[in-house]
Amino acid sequence: ISYASTAPELSDPGRYEFFSRVVPPDSYQAQAMVAVVRALGWSYVSTLASEGNYGESGVEAFVQSSREAGGLCIAQSIKIPREPKPGEFAKVIGRLMETSTARGVVLFANEDDIRHVLEAATLANLSGHFSWVGSDSWGAKMAPVQGLEEAAHGAITILPKRASVPG
Which pTM does this prediction carry? Predict the structure, then answer.
């Protein structure tokens, strides 16, 4: 029983017959993110993923959901290396600017990568240029945006509904 794993492949009963989770798989938040992007009237977005199962499968689910929903074009899908070299995040921002009209960016990235992307956007004097839609790894956390509020201004993040259980 997992209290935190959102990996969609764990939902395969053929491979994981006795697996159960208490949070929804990433495919659900990808569908929600497509709904948010469509509600905002965006038709051209980029995706940004941390290398690894969470980021890559999250973006894959987003792309699949966007295909099913229709009317959404993915400008480019960028992957952040697991161990980024110095200057890697400046390159990521540079790549996003190659399709600068795709100002909406969907992120399935870990906290540290989100923070570094926002730092790189700030250093490139692009605070406010991008509109971010972040997955639950960003959610309601303050750490990725602390001191970088201007770069993150207007971001929409996804977080599964939570409730406290008394006792």
Answer: 0.88
Residue-wise pLDDT tens digits, 79-95? 999 999 999 999 999 99
Specify burial of residue 36 (Cβ count, 10 A radius: 0-12, 13-18, 19+). middle
Structure tokens belonging to residue 64? 């699949």
Distance between CA 80 and CA 78 in Å, rounded? 7
Give the count of beta carbons closer than 10 Å to the beta carbon of residue 11.
15
Distance CA 82, CA 16 (A): 26
Rounded distance, CA 158 to CA 23, Å? 13
How many CB atoms sit inside 10 A of residue 69's CB?
A: 13
Q: 4 CB contacts (<8 Å, ≥6 apart)?
A: 23
Domain spanning 25-157: CATH 3.40.50.2300: yes
